[in-house]
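User: Hey, my collaborator sent me this sequence without any context and asked if I could get a structure. I don't really work with proteins. Can you help?
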Amino acid sequence: MNVSPRRPSISTPDIPPPERFTDATRAVDRLTEIYEIGTKHLRERFRENAGRCRPRERFRAFYPEIRFVTTSFAHIDSRLSFGHVTQPGTYATTVTRPGLFRNYLIQQIGLLIENHRVPVTIGTSETPIPLHFAMGSGTDISVPQDGEMRFALRDVFDVPDLSTTNDDIVNGCGFPYGDGTAPLAPFTAQRVDYSLARLEHYTATDPEHFQNFVLFTNYQFYVEVFEDFARGALADASSGYTGFVGPGNVEISAAVEPFPATGKTPQMPAYHLKRPQGAGITLVNIGVGPSNAKTATDHIAVLRPHAWLMVGHCAGLRNSQRLGDFVLAHAYLREDHVLDDDLPIWVSIPPLAEIQIALEKGVAEVTRLEGFELKRVMRTGTVATIDNRNWELRDQSGPVQRLSQSRAIALDMESATVAANGFRFRVPYGTLLCVSDKPLHGELKLPGMASDFYRTQVANHLRIGILAMERLRETPLERIHSRKLRSFEETAFL
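Assistant: No problem. I've predicted the 3D structure and written it out in structure-token form, which is a compact way to encode the shape of the chain:
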């Protein structure tokens, strides 16, 4: 007689029962309580059993959940493109790291309650918290690789599940939960946890340091200028900036403090000039190539920044351009290919007026040129992004014809990827590039030319990006996060 093996019992923590809230702050407090109880349970059980044989029970905790139900078709009179749902139904989202996202969650839940005059229900979801994500960056224990323990980890604890770590919601794939509930937020908790872990790995800084306004660049020279600017800002008590953080989470709060080296440079180092409420500026050196650009934006998107801009170097494609001229992108020729499966090539990536104006005013302020005179140093047009750094070494007839037909004025390897992922993730985006070479006209990026160029233009270029971000910071939220980036059916949360 065959006897099936007995399934191990499951040990879960005691969690408060689901409760309805009409106060957003209290709702987030409960989310935090549930999350901390669950992650503490997993950490303690792992610590107790790490060196033992396989336990007789399984250990599990669940992500907290926000659930919202409305039965009304009443039109919501709101200037915001978020903070409300468009039709009756049940909506839900799992939540992770509520302490990190506290201000965001209070804002989004508060708008939902205010607009619909219906409470939200806070409880536990049916999605287990993977042990790896329960550890967090502040703990003194880590999960060993498979095979290093005396029992198979996934036999006792939950591990990351790709079925809940995808982009079906933001990609508009009609994502429903198992019970038919519609998504309330653009990312599930596991998707967020995955990106937070990746961000820490790639940038060597904790997600807590990221600010709401993000600059991307493709050259280290911009980092050096950014540090100089940061020190100047910290020396000015009226600037509003409070600290500067670099890889290794090294933080200074005074202009004269040393910024010690942290050893090995991460793949995409990040630097954070901080202000209260995350209103400062983050600079990420994503390096060269669309793959890096996609990787960085895939993960930073879960932090829901208010804007990101690409400020890097490009090849000028017009003979009238000079080295050091600026290019303000108002369209993109997407030959980067890394987003073809997520955002079809037939989807246009429109310019966003608020971003374009902020960048143009930044150029005008730094160069002291206005109106028609501004055209002496800045062209507005199509930027082409490709995935082949040495395209010049192949037969040029095909690429050059496409560039000409598209009316492109500049070529790089990151801008269209950054903009397209901004469009996909509903993060306002923009591009201001600086011409560093003109390959079609015999001006290649050679060492001597490059060093002189870097010395004269990088500081101005980065200063323009910072000015644009500071102007956007003063722009009302409803104007930055406009309906331009929202599709027919959107999540209530930004």
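In plain terms: The chain has two domains: 9-193, 204-483. You can pass these tokens on to your collaborator as they are.
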